Structures are given as structure tokens and as C-alpha cells.
Amino acid sequence: MIRRSRMLVLASVVVMLSLAAGESKGERFNPLKPPDRSSPRATLKSFVESLDAGAALLREMRSGGGSFEENAKIVREAESHFDHAIECLDLESVAPELVQDTGFETVLMLKDVLDRIPLPPYAEIPDADAMEAEGSEFWAIPDTEIFIEFASAGPHAGSYLFSQDTVSRIRDFFARVKDVPYRSNAEGGLYTFYISAPGHWLLPATPWFDSLPDWSHSLVLDQAVWQWLGLMVSLFLGGALLLLIWHWTEHEEPGPESRSSLKASLRPLAVMVVVTAVEFTADECFNITGGVLKALSLSLGAVFYMAGIGAVWLVAGGMAELLISAQHLRVRSIDSQLVRLGLRFVALIGSAAIAVEGAQRLGLPAYSVLTGLGIGGLAVALAARESMANLLGSIVIMFERPFRVGDWIQAASVEGNVEGVGFRSTRIRTFYDSLVSIPNSELVNTVVDNMGRRRYRRVKTRLVLNCETPIETVEAFTEGVRSMIRDDQVTWNEKIHVVVEDFGESGIPVLLYFFLVVPSWESELMERQRLLLEIMRLADNLGIRLAFPTQTVFVEGTNEAGASS
To answer: How many whole angstroms separate alpha carbon 104 and alpha carbon 85?
Structure first.
């Protein structure tokens, strides 16, 4: 599809140059009917007649004095004729980003070239039967290298088109014949006027444009001086706007991290908007053309798509922090890291899609980009195997969740509370307050004892009663302790053992074995202390003395025994 503003520029050019063409009569033009490209004769005739027909309609609009709606209808029909002329070109080798401008400029230059050289009568140009009889798939305009060639593939397969080589060399052809006079029946000068004319959005200022000094219409690299000045002003204003936005987004404000991340994403978004505005101004207002427009469009297009990739990553990061904040998740928890990882994966897919689309638009084949991404990814993977292993380890931890932030774990000879799980390592705060980082690749391959996931916390200890404690008192003590533990609200009633375990050297050992139902190590210590103190009070009420490690020594020849501790 051809850029519509170009058609309006051509309308003014055609009127100003008074291109000769007759008014179309008879059957109305059908814009959906493709041009006849069945042979070199049909293609050349369709090309010339489409331009002439469009010019005739524009002359009719200029001289008819019709209403705005009527003129708009005429312009649309003229645009369809110009579209048909472009459909006679093989533009498959042109980057999609440049198809519109390249096609239009090629049409104008090719028409200018054809207006300067002798053309054979249509009857002497081979038709489809003649091409089939000759067994040839191309025809050249006599004494030129301008070819009309059969297209065997692509959207116009089966048609005869001005060849890709002709399209790519049209500027060279145009430069060679620029000093050759026009044929007597040709007006000419269309492209020369077009390249220095204003774009669609400045057409209402044509009187002002005509009043500019002569030096402003001088051409430098096929652009008028006034066009260069306008382009530099638009670039300067765009750069100044970006600096202001960059300065504003760098200003730190108190608030959640999600707000800062989303605010930072305004930078690449601003780049995308400014790049689009500059390209639109250069093309639609100042009518930059030719090689300058190609270089500008490709450069700004590359910046646009790179900024788009940056915007995707920043927006994904901001959304991740926003979700974490909305769900009131811990910043360093596994759930938070899983949210970040998921959105980063989405950003990775989006970035790859933008890169492929951008490369395709800029003229790089998509398969080459995908191959490059694959090779680049392999190189990165080989150069950063440890980092990739740690990343995969973090993914395993996030999905299997062997522990959470705050859990008390024992792993790789390290014991402490999990303080954070990152994409490379897990940080553990030890009980002597040091911070240990264990690579995730090692952590997933070692035994992790999660003390924080215990449903019940075991209490196992021994109370040694004095050897002289009566049997009845021992029985009353064990039964009392058992009942006390069973009736307590923080103990698990399924496993309670309070039994005389053995005969000890220094007393009667009583095994205490039960479980506490508490959420943390701190509460475990407090409840354990409370129960042990109650047991000591029970022993005191029963007159039981808890024995200390002692050793009795009998000396031969005496009736008394001495005890030493």
C-alpha cells in the first residue's frame, strides 16, 4: 500500500506541471482489479496508462470546482491508479520498512527515464504468445538494461514485472539520463520537482514555500536546503524532549519499587514516540527522499525496535513488582521470585518477537535473525555454564519449594534461616549472624533438612531422680508428668513417653519424649522452658530430688562411704 500523502504531493506536482493526459471515458475504473501484467507489453502499457489516468483525474479535480467530498472521491480513485503503477514493480528485495517510499520514488524516476528515451510502439513489444514462443522469461527495453521479467515466486507470481535489478539500479539509470532532453511529447521533470516539494502536512503552506529564497531550494544530496534545516530542527526538538523526559524519570521519589520501575519504562516509550514523530515529520512534512530517507528510516527504525525491547523488559519488571506489592508478598520470597521469573520469561518471548519483526521490517530475513539468536544463545550458554546452572537451580527451587524465606534449614554444612532466594544463590542467615550465600546449582544437589517445615517439634530429655526415691513416688511422678504433658494445649497427644528408662549410675533416669505444636523456634524454646519448670515444681511437690552425676567410692576397712562429685 502506498503512502497516501505521497499521492497528494503527486497531485500538486501533476497540476503544477500540467501533465498531458486525456480524461478517462467509458467504464469506471475498478480499484480491486489488478493491472494487466500478463506480458512485457501489458506491463509497460499498464504502468504508463496508470500514471496517465491518475494524472487526468487530478486535473479533473483541480479544474472541476467540486465539493470536498467529490474531490476526496477523485483523489482516492487517482491513488488506486498510482497503486497499480507500483504493482508493476518487483519490490520483493526491498525492506518492508521502505517499500512504500521506495516504490513511489522508483515509479517517478522510472517514468522520468522513460520520458527521455525512445520507446518502441506497443505492437512491437512481445505479448504473452510471443514470449511463450520465444521461450524467454524477460524482455529489455531496446538499448537499455531496464528489464521486465517473469516472476516465478512471491505475491505476484505468474506476472511480468519491472525486475528487482531495475528497481535497485533506477537511481543509476536516472543519473545517466538526467542531461538527456525529454521526448517532444513528454512533459518530464516530475521527480525533480517532487524531491524538493513539501510533504502533505505542509502543502497548505505552499504560498509560503514559494516565497522562500532561491538558495533554500538548492539541492544537497538530493534534498533542498530548507528540507535539511527542517530535519535538523526536528532532530534537535526530539533530542531536547528526550533529555527532559530522561531527567524527570531519573528523579527519585519515595514510593514502592513498582512505581519506580514503571516510571523508568517511560524512557524507552518516549524514545519510541519521539523516533516515530521525527520520522513522520521528515517524511510527511519535509518530504525527505532517496538515500537520506533510507538511512534515516533504517536508523530510526533500529532505535525504535531496540527501545521497544527495553520497554518490554522494564514494563515486565514494573508489573512484577506491582503484583508482588498488591499480593503483599515478601520482596525476597520464593513466590516473589517466581512472579519475577514468569514475567521475565514473558519479556524474553516478547523481545524475541520484536527483534524478529524489527529485523524483518528492516530487511533482514527472519530465519537469519532466529539463527543468530540461536548461535548467540549457545555461545552465551557455553560461556556462562555456571550461571545457567544456577538459574536452572533457582527455577527448580521456585517450583519445588523445598523451603521458604524464613525457614530454618540445614544444607551444605550450613545451618540458619533462609533470608532470600535469588536467581543465582540462596542467602542463609546463620545463628551467629553471618550471611552465607550458597549457589543454587549446589543447593539443589545437596540434602536440605528443613527444620522450619516440622509439623511438631520434638522434646527429648532425661531427668535423673535420686536413687533413694521410693518406687511409689517415682510412679506418681511419671504419671503426673504424663498427665501434665497430655493436658497441655501446645503438645501433641499422639506420642507422649514418660518412662523409667534404665538403672543409672548416679540415679534413676526418666525419659521424657513428646512433641510441641508451635510455629517457630522461639516459641519452641519458651514452651519447652515452661513445661520443664512445671515438671520441676511437680518434683518439688512430691519431695523428689533430681540427682546430679555422682560417684560412690567404698573404702575397704571402713564402715562409711565417701562421695565425690
So the answer is: 9
Helices (H), 87-189: 99-114, 128-134, 164-168, 170-177
- pLDDT tens readout for residues 37-93: 999 999 999 888 887 776 677 666 656 666 656 666 776 777 788 788 888 999 888
Mean pLDDT of all residues in 349-360: 80
Exposed, middle or buried: residue 492 (CB in 10 Å: 0-12, 13-18, 19+)?
Answer: middle
SS3 554: strand
Helices 471-487, 521-541: crossing angle, 10 deg rounding: 150
Residue 82 has which C-alpha cell?
Answer: 498510482
Cα 244 from Cα 128, distance rounded (Å): 62
Q: CA 109 from chain center: how many Å?
A: 40
Contact (CB, 8 A) for 54 and 169: no
Question: Half-sphere exposure of 299 toward its Cβ, with a 13 Å CA cutoff?
Answer: 9
Domains, the chain, ordered by start: 4-197 (no CATH), 223-383 (no CATH), 395-452 (2.30.30.60), 454-541 (3.30.70.100)
Sequence length of the chain is 565
Cβ neighbors of 48 (< 8 A, separation 6 or more) are 111, 114
How many whole angstroms separate alpha carbon 215 and alpha carbon 309? 43
Tell me which H or E stretch contains 492: none
Please tell me the distance from the alpha carbon of residue 110 to that of residue 370, in angstroms, as a whole number. Answer: 36
CA distance 6 to 197: 11
Cα–Cα distance between 524 and 516 in angstroms, integer? 7
Average pLDDT, stretch 333-348?
Answer: 75
Over residues 284-327, the pLDDT tens digits come to 777 787 778 778 888 888 889 888 888 888 888 777 777 777 76
Strand-strand pairing, 219-220 and 138-140: unpaired
Quick one: angle between helices 68-86 and 99-114, nearest 10? 80
CA distance 228 to 218: 11
Helix axes 266-280, 225-250, angle to 10 degrees: 170
Q: What CA–CA distance (Å, rounded) separates 59 from 9?
A: 13
What burial class does residue 455 get, using C-beta atoms within 10 Å of its C-beta: 0-12 exposed, 13-18 middle, 19+ buried? exposed
Element (H, E) at 466: none
What letter would DSSP give residue 214? G
pLDDT over 60 at 3, yes or no: no
Condensed to tens digits (0 to 9), the pLDDT of residues 363-388 reads: 776 555 556 555 555 555 555 566 66
